[in-house]
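Case study.
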Amino acid sequence: MENILEVKNLCKKYKGFELRNINIEVPKGMIMGLIGENGAGKSTTIKSILNVINRDSGEINIFGLDNVKNEKQIKEDIGVVLDDSFLSDYLNPTDINKIMKNMYKTWDEKLYFEYIEKFNLPRNKISKEFSSGMKMKLKIAVALSHHPKLLILDEPTSGLDPVARNEILDIFQDFIQDEEHGIFVSSHITSDLEHIADYITFINEGEIVLTKTRDELLENFGIVKCSEEDFKKFDKKDYVKFKRNRYEYDILVEDKVEFARKYDAQIIDKPTIEDIMLIYIKGEK
Amino acid sequence: MNGIKGLITKDLLQLKTYKRTLIVFIFVFVVSGMQQETMDGAMSMITIMLILVFGMVGIATFSYDEMAKADRYILTLPLTRKEVVRAKYMLVILLTLVGAVLGVLASGIISYAMSKALPDFLELISYALGGILGIAFVEGIQIPCMYKFGAEKGRMQIFIVIAIMALLLGGIFFIGEKINVNLPVNNILNILTNFLPLVLLALTAIIYFVSYKIAYKLYSKKEI
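After joint prediction, the assembly is written out as follows.
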């Protein structure tokens, strides 16, 4: 399968924080979700991909091209939504159309206003008067209206109510129907990614902890709930991490079927992505 | 060029909110210019003040971008950092020229209305070029400061930079006097007067060019 985005051994050092050997591959036609707690390195990874910060080492290819050498060409085909950065609040959707048609060669004015209508956004009201959900919808409309091949989305559903979130997730699903497209999305709302992502990459303290398909994570991983006495019987290499609760232990296992067979375990819960993330971050080995 | 046009469009559209303030400023400067005792004084004041106001309005676009944290988003658009800096300089120069044209026109109209004679347009243009050089000097320092320190901090830095430059110039003259080096001030002034418009234009071009180079160097290394 051809990759639309490849990050190889990306390193970036800041005072007090370091991104170490990040490797990510997003195949065409797929949605890759990047999860991790605040400060884990999600935004630094996205900023490096977008060449907004200079990487210390490593390689980033988008559409098979180096993201620094072919920056302008690549950015014509990327749609970007950033949670904390957009154009001035003193512009209205009509102004933004005037700007963007002078920015992208493939800007589609008709499509843009179709999204504006669909999202019920007033054309001539400055975005300062929009709710945070409306502002996010405006960013998404802009990101989609030049027929991009790759969407890079940093927390695109934050600030949206559940109905709006679903609406937006449906749009991403439609976008990915084209096999030439791809989506790289970071979010701390892991339930959203559970719905749409084909792959999940989990980043913690500047390092990739795991990359798996969503189905592998949700179907193979399990959380064994047991007493301290039972816990002591388990071999360390058979589980990923454990979390000590008040009355029981939560043990994250990578292959629940194998674990159940080996230890005759009775209670193995199906985890959510959030459960897996929490035990990885808070758990012990 | 497409991206540069988009950025200039963005800044001009953002400045819509300044429309009323600008009209008030123009009115105030025209009226106060008319209070000057001589026609020369009135014309020079109106021309120079309008240039300064329009020039400073261009600088205000930095604050809009900073408030929206727009820098990062802008760099995700199909633009190079060089184009981002170039667009900003093109905008401030464009606005300064608009201020100069308005200033010369307003002065001409007032002069005709008050004395029923057309003004000396060469003289008016000299005032305008002087005003443009003045604002180029301010912008030439301020824009790189804005790229280096951000809109808020950059605004403070300009006072520090101007103070340092004043001290340096003062220091050179002071040391010159102390060690009895006679600076050919009169000769310099004579040359300036004879070739004034050309000298003003050349100085303005040099200031903008050097400032642009510095601003680009600072912005190309900036982590956003």
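Observations recorded in class. Chain A touches chain B at residues 47, 50-54, 71-73, 75-76, 78, 80, 82, 84-91, 95, 98-105, 152 (CB under 8 Å). The mean pLDDT of chain A is 91. We will return to this complex in the next lecture.
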